[in-house]
Amino acid sequence: MSLSVDVDELEKDWTELSDEYRSLEAANQQYQELHERLEEMQEKCTKQIQHQRYRMRQISKNLKTYMTQEKLTPEDRDKVTQLEKSIMKRKAQIHEIEQGLPQQNSQYLKIILGDVNVSILNRNDKIRYKDEYEKFKLILNVIGLLLSFLNIVFNYRALELVFLFLLVWYYCTLTIRESILKVNGSRIKGWWRLHHFISTVCAGVLLVWPQGEPWQLFRSQFMYFNVYISLVQYMQFRYQKGVLYRLKALGERHNMDITIEGFHSWMWRGLKFLFPFLFVGYLFQFYNAWTLYRLTQHPDATWQIPVLSILFLILFVGNSFTTLMVILQKQTERTENRYRLMSLIASKRQKTTVRVNTKETRLPNPLCCFPAFRCALMVPLSFQQPTNEGAEAATAKGEPTAVESEKTK
């Protein structure tokens, strides 16, 4: 009897589970339909974005042609300026819309990962992935600092290989993560991405450099260089993190902006004190290139030495040039802003002078000196009294004017 009761309960549980499964099937069906609809909407948005960009290119092209061929009136210039501002605003709006749509992988990601969609559509997930990237850089930077310090203290080939392999893996991983961040809206660009690719090649060449006298002559210098660079990168990370947080809170930076090893325009506020440390690091790179160039004349020199000398020289030139361009750009912007402010102040002063001169040419209403009369009679400040030379002369002598004589009568 108890067995029968148990079976009945099991059948009842199975029936309930079957009902729940039918609910799961319905939810899954709805999910599949929504997913298909989502893909259709994503494709539709992508096509409309392409259409918007095509039309904006045509409008911009026609606008440039119009500006070169026609003599523009001030009203037309205002319309052209307004159109250019609207186009710039629309480009920014389209960029924001794109952040919620899947993006095409770069060629580098296609080679490394294949045709895999790495777009992160959820904004919180994007920020979380960026934060993980920052933590990854910080942790590996500290590990690299410790290993380079140990290599200064102990001269073991196995410890050297561990450190060099770590550099290769670190820069390879960094380039992949940065490419994924680039797909998802991060605005790291130009030299600072290329810098990591060159560093990957440099670390790979160092890894295959055979043990010998040239390596031993360069080894200590390279390890000291890594200690210094690791300390500077740690300083940059700590200070850039705070500046980025403040600028994002003010709405002046994008949420996907990341810390970098060099100097960017947004670091101008509060991070100028890093310039000496950065340029010392760049000079250290040049010194490495010069030392390796001299080692090419060593009897046991291998092909790795001239290659590394060229790579370190490229890093020195690229880092120095990019940082100097940022400094010149910010100085130019400051000069332009200063001149704009001066011209604005001058124009305001000129307008004030014109207003004062205009008021001096008018005879003020005596009743305007008294607030009660001004409020009661609603006499404007710019009210003009008719003047004549006889009245002014009579007033100067203390005699009654014609108007006062008329009022007395």
UniProtKB/TrEMBL annotation:
Keywords on this record?
Answer: Coiled coil, Membrane, Transmembrane, Transmembrane helix
Membrane-topology descriptor: Multi-pass membrane protein
Q: Where in the cell is it found?
A: Membrane
* Keyword flag Cytoplasm: no
One of the record's GO cellular component terms:
membrane
Annotated region (Disordered), positions in chain:
389-409
Per the record's keyword annotation, is Transmembrane helix included, yes or no? yes
Kindly name one Pfam family recorded for this protein: TMEM120A-B
Membrane-spanning segments: 138-156, 162-180, 273-293, 305-328
List the residue ranges forming a coiled coil, or say none: 7-51
- InterPro entries hit by this protein: TMEM120A/B
Which protein family is named in the record?
Answer: Belongs to the TMEM120 family.
Its protein name is: AGAP000285-PA
Give the species: Anopheles gambiae (African malaria mosquito)
Taxonomy of origin reads:
Eukaryota, Metazoa, Ecdysozoa, Arthropoda, Hexapoda
